[in-house]
From TrEMBL:
SUPFAM superfamilies: Ribulose-phoshate binding barrel. The keyword Hydrolase applies. CDD domains: HisF. The lineage of its organism: Eukaryota, Viridiplantae, Streptophyta, Embryophyta, Tracheophyta. It comes from the Eukaryota. Pfam families: His_biosynth. Pathway: Amino-acid biosynthesis; L-histidine biosynthesis; L-histidine from 5-phospho-alpha-D-ribose 1-diphosphate: step 5/9. GO terms for molecular function: glutaminase activity; imidazoleglycerol-phosphate synthase activity; lyase activity. The gene is HISN4_1. One of its GO terms (biological process) is L-histidine biosynthetic process. Gene3D superfamilies: Aldolase class I. It catalyses: 5-[(5-phospho-1-deoxy-D-ribulos-1-ylimino)methylamino]-1-(5-phospho-beta-D-ribosyl)imidazole-4-carboxamide + L-glutamine = D-erythro-1-(imidazol-4-yl)glycerol 3-phosphate + 5-amino-1-(5-phospho-beta-D-ribosyl)imidazole-4-carboxamide + L-glutamate + H(+); L-glutamine + H2O = L-glutamate + NH4(+). It comes from Vitis vinifera (Grape). InterPro entries: Aldolase_TIM, His_biosynth, HisF, IGPS_HisA/HisF, RibuloseP-bd_barrel. This is Imidazole glycerol phosphate synthase hisHF, chloroplastic. Keywords: Amino-acid biosynthesis, Glutamine amidotransferase, Histidine biosynthesis, Hydrolase, Lyase, Multifunctional enzyme.
């Protein structure tokens, strides 16, 4: 096994097929531009897990919505609250979607995701500005593009509109609840229909869970985990309640149950957010990501909470996540190429 070192630190290794597997992919442009890396063969291996042995991906996410002036802007929330703490309470505006996507592509992002975060109000593939964003982005960005927010139906009118993958949030929660209740795959949900037409690899289910602390795992009917950091009243366990409509409504289903159900319904990948960690910069929720990435066979994208480069290596070392997604750390330009 060949290891690539940058400034004395292991940042990547070559797998058996000589593909580069990044441990700290955010350093990729530094690796290629600085030529500061060297190889060695005698460093300890990263832990063996269930996850895909393909290269770990780093995904830049752009939460997009219309601001109060009617412009489509990239925004970013703290625990899903995207409004500034000012008198006007305006939507935080971090830039233009096409420009930022192009920049992240140049910086070395493996994929770019656009989430229309008010999509529960408007259908993004029927939304002209959003279609324009996708079209212009796909002219200059040559990594997989995902679009999500408001997907409720299968529609052929616009196909995938230049997107490689479609992300489904709220509608997948309703579909999973119904499937768990009846045990029947109707074939009629957006998740099932899109994966049948475009293939499982084109369907990402985005989960927006919130941590709920409990004293014992039997306190709820949902899968709970022992948490690394106890809750405010010393609770040692938590379950992760799924939400819909951008975190506004909690549902009677846990992230574990949802992940297992949507895998059976045809999801090809899971985007695992965590409302508690979103925008906090304190690291990913390792307990949650381990729970889900050990439970399913499809790739899991760890999301929410990245604040420093080490958070990426931590999530890849401690869980079976196949990719890590971040937003704020890139928007604030805290990782430089
Ligand atoms: O339910 O199908 O309409 O889809 C709505 C989509 O919009 C979902 O994917 C949901 O996650 C997303 N969404 C809804 N409201 C918000 C919000 O922020 N108010 N954004 C929202 C979700 C979470 C991540 C974020 C990471 C990383 N954003 O995408 O980018 O937490 O952030 P960080 O690195 O700064 O911590 P539907």
């Amino acid at each position: 096994m060949e290891w690539l070192l940058l400034e004395g630190k292991v940042v990547a290794y070559l797998d058996l097929r000589c593909r580069v597997v990044y441990i700290e992919k955010v350093l990729v442009s530094k690796i290629f531009h600085n030529k500061g890396w060297s190889c060695t063969s005698d460093i300890q291996k990263p832990g063996e897990g269930r996850a895909s042995k393909l290269a770990k991906r780093v995904i830049a996410c752009l939460d997009v919505r219309t601001n109060d002036k009617g412009d489509l802007v990239v925004t970013k929330g703290d625990q899903y609250d995207v409004r500034e703490n000012t008198g006007e309470n305006e939507v935080r505006n971090l830039g233009k979607p096409v420009e930022l996507a192009g920049q992240y592509y140049i910086d070395g992002a493996d994929e770019v995701s656009f989430l229309n975060i008010t999509g529960f109000r408007d259908f993004p593939l029927g939304d002209l500005p959003m279609l324009e964003v996708l079209r212009y982005t796909s002219e200059n960005v040559f990594v997989p593009l995902t679009v999500g927010g408001g997907i409720r139906d299968f529609t052929d009118a616009n196909g995938r509109s230049g997107a490689d993958k479609i992300s489904i949030g709220s509608d997948a929660v309703y579909a999973a609840e119904e499937y768990i209740r009846t045990g029947v795959k109707t074939g009629k949900t957006s998740l099932e229909q899109i994966s049948r037409v475009y293939g499982n690899q084109a369907v990402v289910v985005s989960i927006d869970p919130r941590r709920v602390y409990i004293n014992a795992p039997d306190d709820v009917e949902f899968k709970a985990v022992r948490v690394t950091n106890p809750g405010p009243n010393g609770e040692e366990y938590a379950w992760y309640q799924c939400t819909v409509n951008g975190g506004r409504e909690g549902r009677p289903i846990g992230a574990y149950e949802l992940a297992k159900a949507v895998e059976e319904l045809g999801a090809g990948e899971i985007l695992l957010n965590c409302i508690d960690c979103d925008g906090q910069g304190k690291g990913f929720d390792i307990d949650l990501i381990k729970l889900i990435s050990d439970a399913v066979s499809i790739p899991v994208i760890a999301s929410s909470g990245a604040g420093v480069v080490e958070h990426f290596s931590e999530v890849f070392k401690k869980t079976n996540a196949s990719a890590a997604l971040a937003a704020g750390i890139f928007h604030r330009k805290e990782v430089h190429s």
